[in-house]
Description:
Elements: E1 2-3, H1 16-32, E2 70-73, E3 79-82, E4 90-92, E5 108-113, E6 122-126, E7 132-136, E8 149-151, E9 159-164, E10 173-177, E11 183-186, E12 201-204, E13 212-217, E14 226-230, E15 236-239, E16 253-256, E17 264-269, E18 278-282, E19 288-291, E20 303-304, E21 314-315, E22 328-333, E23 337-342, E24 353-357, E25 362-366, E26 376-381, E27 384-387, E28 390-393, E29 399-406, E30 415-420, E31 425-428, E32 441-444, E33 450-454, E34 467-471, E35 476-479, E36 493-496, E37 502-509, E38 518-523, E39 528-531, E40 543-547, E41 552-555
Antiparallel strand pairs: 1-40, 2-3, 2-21, 3-4, 5-6, 6-7, 7-8, 9-10, 10-11, 11-12, 13-14, 14-15, 15-16, 17-18, 18-19, 19-20, 22-23, 22-41, 23-24, 25-26, 26-27, 27-28, 29-30, 30-31, 31-32, 33-34, 34-35, 35-36, 37-38, 38-39, 39-40
Amino acid sequence: MHLSTRKSDRTGRTRSKRASRIAACTALVLSAGMLLAAPASADDAKGAEAPKAVGSTPRMDITGDGRSDILYQTREGYLFQSVGTSVADYPLELHAPEGATGHTIYKDIIAPGDLQGDGQPELLTLTASGTLTLHPMVGMDPTGGTPTWSGKGWQKYNKIVAPGDLTGDGHNDLIARTPAGDVYLYVSTGRIDGEPFEPAVKVASGWNTYDQIVGLNDSTGDGIGDVVTRTPSGDLYFHMGTGNPSKPFKAASRIGYGFDTYNQLVGVDDVNGDGYGDLMGRRPNGDTYIYRFSGLGHYRARIPGTFGWQKAAMFVGAGGNPAFGKRSVTGVTSEGAGYVYDSKNNGELFARTRGFDYTEGRLRIASSLDDGGRADDLWVRDGSLYIGYNRIGDGWNIYNDLIGPGDLSGDGAGDILARDTKGDLFLYRGNGKGTALAARIKVGYGYGSYRHIVGAGDLTGDGRADVVGIAKDGTLYLYEGTGKASAPLKARVKIGSGFDIYNKFAAIGDLNGDGKADLVGVNGYGDLYRYTSTGTGKLNKRVRIGYGFNTYKALY
């Protein structure tokens, strides 16, 4: 119960007043050294200096001062623009995608920059169900303009990246990676309506070895976008843009190591005015460091940035696979009182807040079943299943466990697994709204041997939802998701032992801000331990983050 540690038009008429205020504050921040940056390891420098470059247009210049701003989404799903410590972060509230109801928490937000050459940047928002929507930024209007384009089916990618102009035509492009590691190029048409991108062309493979892909914009001064990637072990690779749409990157070169100390790497464009795109790393405690690129394909020694950035559940321009659907855990007392612990985004939990009372029926909590981005209650009462307040159907008293790990079928909608008393496992595909489920599909048997079956997000780094089970002997098994409804789980793999010490076990989603799913368990003393994911299907060493959790009869 207690935690060990805590927490118009596009003429620009509306720019002048707020732009002048923010530009002045930005200058103050830069003079104070907030965004400075130079290594071989994540700490060191190497290489000669390159001539000063002209530089490409900043991708996130909302203020119109010629520099990119930092944009981020909070864990509640609100978008903010930050220009420094001396000014309060400024809220941006984009128009919701067509058909959306209520507050949408975006799975990802991508900043391609100025797509049509009018000097105004655009933003792209991605929902969990796979809708990518283009938002023109209208002067200083914090809501942006009315969306000009939406496309569906983008859930087939686990990462969409805005690297800058990859073809040399003056328009910024997109790349997108599949779970299998194939990379596709979407060339900009120079328009923001109709079809803003040409059809996808496969340009690379084998990129599933990287857990972060970051678009730098132009970091070499040739006007072509560049990319850095990171392996789970922390090696950093540079992919120089060629300007050739059929082969947009030169062979990758390893330029650093030790970057696994960061839970996110973020492309921040040119922070020091030398014309080269730069990189920011955030540690789990919220401290940031800046790496200025030299113009020669490597970076100078790192420079401290600012602290407190654990407030960003998601940076615009971040390189990790985006997490979605659950960042909390709920404890329920024997009297049925529910208490919610939200993630601080740094491996710790906020103090509990009172949730709902769960005095009737049987409860489970699923990763978000719609685009709302919040965990959903699964109730079984008198044999009927309810998702929140929506009654779904009868006959659910045949199941002794329900699991909601996220999208298992690859269509972008959250799904449910149900285990019956014989140990058979069934998949119910969601409709993306949390209001209905498709007919069940039997997907396994023998699951009655597990004490706990949980899941909420991606444990293996491919962007697909996974499931883990604790056998009665304490062995922890991983079932990797496939993204196929007919066989959503691969054969189990042993990833741990001794987990029978936990009488309560839960999947919390992303606990430490790296986009990977994490797990928590409560032992007989009531101590709460976290297991953060490496993104390779393995878990890091456990860390105690709370005590007194034996006050709860269940943890979800």
